[in-house]
Amino acid sequence: MEALVRKFGTPLYVYSADQILERLTLFQQALAHRAHLVCYAVKANSALAILRLLAARGAGFDIVSGGELERVLAAAPDAVSRVVYSGVGKTVAEIDLALRSGILAFNVESEAELDLLAARAAKLRTPARFALRVNPDVFAETHPYISTGLRQHKFGIDIRKALALYRGAAGNRWLQAYGVSFHIGSQIRSAEPFGAAMQRVGKLLAQLRRSGIELQAIDAGGGLGIDYHSEHFDAPAKVAEYAAALNQALDGFAGRLLIEPGRFLVAQAGALVARVLQVKRSGSKTFLITDAAMNDLIRPALYQAHHEIVPVQTRAGKPRIVDVVGPVCETGDFFARDRKLPPIEPGDLLALLDAGAYGMAQSSNYNTRLRPAEVLVEGARARLIRRRETMADLLAPEIL
Ligand SMILES: *Cc1c(COP(=O)(O)O)cnc(C)c1O
Fold first, then answer.
1. Where are the domains of the chain?
2. Residue 375 contacts by C-beta under 8 Å, 6 or more apart in sequence?
3. pTM assigned to the model
4. CB of 142 shorter than 6 A to ligand 1
5. pLDDT, tens digit, 9 for 90 and up, residues 16-75
6. 329 flagged as catalytic
7. 17-266 architecture in CATH?
């Protein structure tokens, strides 16, 4: 870390390519006995180098915007035939780009979107493969901002309405019913809700079959969570449990199983390295002020998320209770509150762990701060995959 920081500065995102690929392999092996496709959810970390890394090992992609499709086209154009396109608000331009690019399937989130897709497909004379993203109405324990599988959420189509929509689409020559999809939320720690959702989708499949509609694929979405607190996370056991829950509920379905993991593949492969600028005492509180801030990693501010923080070099001495904060003018700009950490001095480096997912991807330029550089470690080699932003980058779009 020190060598990387000497070369590339701080704040710095550092990712392990080996760990990302290990995680991908876990999913691929757990589903190896059936036709399957692991579609990495690009929004978790959309670095081009990471997309290329995953595509080279056969991964597909789950995208939620035309911009993410452009990323796949830039990083791994051959993988476009393994792209599924989710999202509640697709524009005409985005749909047209996806149709022309030849993606695998659209995950359609409303009746109006299905009509729009049919119209664009007819206009471009390009058949559209689609899956209805159904809302299975299952509750999954997670932060309310990232729970999506209940009827009250904006996502998906009420599963009770899906049958009628598939029947309606069957008469349209520009629409091909490829599959059915669901995504019940993110950072879900238990396998049980995935099985429950799959069971409901299984019932829909049986109804469809009775209506003469045979779907080729089920897309079970993403959402498998990690443990942000523990050093001893058993990823193979988690994947095995998850795959078992899906497989059990799938029983009898001979088609293809798609999954869309994001966080599980990249979160624990990444750290955000920051330098401590100052140690400030105020009343009974001690603040470690770092050169990274909420604009670089917003998860603590946005989701009350926990990230383990470790000094890159440990010093001898008694641990202290501290707040780790950034320099941004917001009280919400913190990484940890009342955290017990070993002694830390100004100039020391801190690593914020498990920051590979929804870290850089949700970063911003708030407070006119330049976003961090990113480094990918592959075996014994490390290379820059995104240079640090410059002031020229930031000012370029502005007009005086
Ligand atoms: C965000 C998202 C994912 C990935 O979720 P993770 O929790 O990162 O696995 C997958 N599918 C869809 C439709 C999403 O919106």
1. 2-12+268-384, 17-266
2. 4, 8, 12, 13, 14, 15, 382, 383, 384, 385
3. 0.96
4. no
5. 999 999 999 999 999 999 999 999 999 999 999 999 999 999 999 999 999 999 999 999
6. yes
7. Alpha-Beta Barrel (3.20)
